């Protein structure tokens, strides 16, 4: 029986880690060679993209894709982790909450839309001096993270609820890779002078992949998406002949083939529909920058 290979979309439930999902998939598919294209916090649910077998090499091209999230932001309470798993640090009084108008919320959201400079949450996986920021924070050490440039292309409020001295906002966010939705909640609350944190987070999209196409449980017979199909959907396709496929696999350039490139780093696909690798322009030629293990016919 051939070893499994391909891309698997999983809808992660809450209260387990992304690594738990990978471990379950490894047991179900009976292979250790499974990786992911970006984690979700334990409290979060939604889309994880897993690479299986040789297809793990494609994850580097998926991890940087834009993403969509649905979330709930609670205004009026700040926590040390910027989400509901943290310890409450401040709570606004009733007068401050009453002073937050819908127009103020709209203005605050608008200020956090587009290209922005964002300081990630101090309880994050970013490394500081070789250690994860969340490990430093939990050890009581001071964590100061540098701001990074991200793009929030959509920050839409779909619902507003006022109750018990807080304001809950349901939002949808389209953003570039590396954006922290927890930080958006924190920064919106800070801008409104009431504090804020995230109480719900669900990832619904990564690039062309939708959570509606994901499975909730991985079984030994769960079908995987072919690596050629996935690579073409993410990077665009570059059809090659059998002879060109052989040359690319042997590290040779395709002389004068650069004019055929429709994208910067497309997926070279052979006449049998197999992924040869990822290619790039070298002058007027085309050369492989990543070759895939040849898939049996």
Question: What does this molecule look like?
Answer:
- Responsible for synthesis of pseudouridine from uracil-55 in the psi GC loop of transfer RNAs.
- This protein has eight helices and 17 strands.
- The protein is α+β, with helices and mostly antiparallel strands and 297 residues long.
- It folds into three domains: 6-65 and 207-225, Pseudouridine synthase (2-Layer Sandwich), CATH 3.30.2350; 67-204, 2-Layer Sandwich (Pseudouridine synthase); 228-291, PUA domain (Archaeosine Trna-guanine Transglycosylase, Chain: A, domain 4), CATH 2.30.130.10.
- The strands form four sheets. Strands 1, 2, 3, 4, 7, 10, 11, 12 and 13 form a nine-stranded mixed beta sheet that branches. A four-stranded mixed beta sheet has the order 14-15-16-17.
- A hairpin with an 8-residue loop joins strand 2 and strand 3 (45-52).
- The longest helix is centred in the N-terminal third of the chain and has 12 residues, at 18-29.
Please describe the topology of this protein.
Layout: E1 6-12, H1 18-29, E2 34-36, E3 45-52, H2 59-62, E4 67-75, E5 77-79, E6 88-91, H3 94-98, H4 102-111, E7 114-118, E8 127-128, E9 131-132, H5 133-138, E10 148-163, E11 166-175, H6 181-191, E12 196-206, E13 209-210, H7 227-235, E14 237-239, H8 242-249, E15 267-269, E16 275-282, E17 285-291
Keywords: Isomerase, tRNA processing
GO biological process, one term: mRNA pseudouridine synthesis
Catalytic activity: uridine(55) in tRNA = pseudouridine(55) in tRNA
